[in-house]
Amino acid sequence: MKKIPKNIKYTIIGISTFIFFSLNSMFGINLIVDSINLIQKMTGYHFGISTNTLDYLTFASIPVFGMLYNSTRAEFKKSELLLDLLTVLFCVLIIFGIGLYFLIYIGRSPNPLFPEYLLIEPFDFYSTMLIGIGIATPFLALNLIKNKTLCRHHDL
To answer: Cβ distance 16 to 58 under 8 Å?
Structure first.
């Protein structure tokens, strides 16, 4: 973190704060509803995803975690910071998509009055967990790559 200039750190924290407050207002609810409707048109399933302040906080922290991911590099470059932010965001989207795919199998309501196309979260904070796993994925992959590299050097 010491390699990243202070003005960049403050900018990223400001962006995260702006994202949180904009998502926590009506913009976040509209974004979720529009996304669910778009996904329903594409897949034929309606994903009943709950949203709460913790989801918005977790999602808004993606720029901060992108900055932390960037701090693992040897030197700071703005282009690599943008790449790292996009890497974390891409991982969140992929993991969230996989989580929605799992909902097709585990998200059906036991109540026979609910239609088959309506899928619900199996437990509270399911979406928060998916976002958290998505944020952690690049760090886990980096750690795995570093450990494999260390093992290869140790085997020599």
So the answer is: no
Instruction: Report how far residue 84's alpha carbon sits from residue 138's, in angstroms, rounded to the nearest whole number.
Output: 9
Question: What does pTM read for this prediction?
Answer: 0.81
Residue 32 lies in a domain: yes
Tally of domains in the chain: 1
| Residue 75 placed within a domain | yes
Note whether 21 and 88 are within 8 A (CB): no
Is there a domain that residue 73 lies in?
yes
Question: Measured between alpha carbons, how far is 156 from 92 in angstroms, rounded to an integer?
Answer: 36
pLDDT digits (tens, 9 = 90+) for 44-65: 877 777 778 888 899 899 999 9
Domain containing 77 equals 6-155
* pLDDT tier at 90, thresholds 50, 70, 90: very high
What is the pLDDT averaged over residues 126-139?
A: 91
In a domain, 1, yes or no: no
What is the tens place of the pLDDT at every residue in 91-114? 999 998 898 888 888 877 777 777
How far is it, in rounded angstroms, from Cα 36 to Cα 45? Answer: 9
| Helices 62-70 and 6-24: angle between axes, nearest 10 degrees | 160
